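Fold Annotation — chain and its backbone
Encoding — discrete vocabulary of local shapes
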Amino acid sequence: MGLRKKSKNPAVFSHEFVIQNHADIVSSVAMVILLGLMFEVTAKFAIMFITVQYNVTYTDIDERNDSINYYAYGFKDLATIFFYMLIAIILHAVIQEYILDKINRRLHLSKTKHSKFNESGQLAFFYLFSFIWGGSILTGEKFATDATLLWEKYPHAHMFFQVKFFYICQIAYWLHALPELYFQKVRKEDIARQLYYICLYIFQITGAYILTLHRLGLILLVPHYLVELLFHASRLFYFSDENKQKGFTLWALLFVMARLLTLTLSVLTFGFGLARAENQDFSIANGNFNTLTVRISCLAAICLTQAWMMWKFINFQLKKWREHTQNQIPKKKVANTKNKPSKKEYKSNASNGTVKTECGTSPRARKAKTS
């Protein structure tokens, strides 16, 4: 059964057909991959799409010879990312059809607000899920409370299952956002804006994953997702009632704090920690990218991104301030016009001899001329 209601039957494989039935098409592809697990011939290929690859097992001598499972990364991760990108497209369609569309019908929003409401709704669900998941991972990691572990014993080529699966899902989600621009018929004026932040997420999360900087990436993503969650939740409440704007004030405060935290940890990691590390040999096999060029490039990319975000933040605040001042000016004019008497009242008072000046006193009577 399709996830979207079909009002008409477009031609097969036309643009409208693909857009209306994209969730069904993607579900069929995912189902074929899952069915591959049932046969011995295709199971070894299907499992590459579904499960996390590159398992490395170590024996911990200090912990009664218990085995610890770590995971590295490789080209097979592309298959896993592709499968979970399909899952993200399906979940996107489910949230849109059964939650956001029903709320939109009740609110009766304009086309512009309707598009922004859908965008914020989808991102709010993702940021909430990612913040809870990332926060649960950080509670079990020591580097969340000790910043020196962000660069000590670098390279951190091996990850726990939850950390690697978190990065796989993050990359898959932001990759799925690219075809969603076509599936959701995003307006042309919004495509460039959304492409900017989608590509930034893909570039920086993938960079942290490949350069074995997953510790730094994780500890920066979690507070950033909290700030973005607050912004999109505030925007959803604003669309339902324009008087609900208190959430934007809290978001503005946390936004600046998150930018300062990102810059501080980045400078400490690349400028001091990794710069003083003994192992500074470039080695793809060992996952060691601790060279001067890589450190400067990473720090420059992070600083430029934070500067761009602050520029957008300042423009947003100025826009809100202008809208607030423009709304206050008509109210003052209305208040002034209510205090002034109308022409009819002035004439009637003048005929009755009760005209008064602004000070509340009657005008002086003219002296009669003497002949």
Remarks:
- DSSP finds eleven helices and two strands in the chain.
- The longest strand covers residues 55-60.
- Residues 354-360 have pLDDT under 50 and may be disordered.
- Residues 227 and 253 are 9 Å apart (CA to CA).
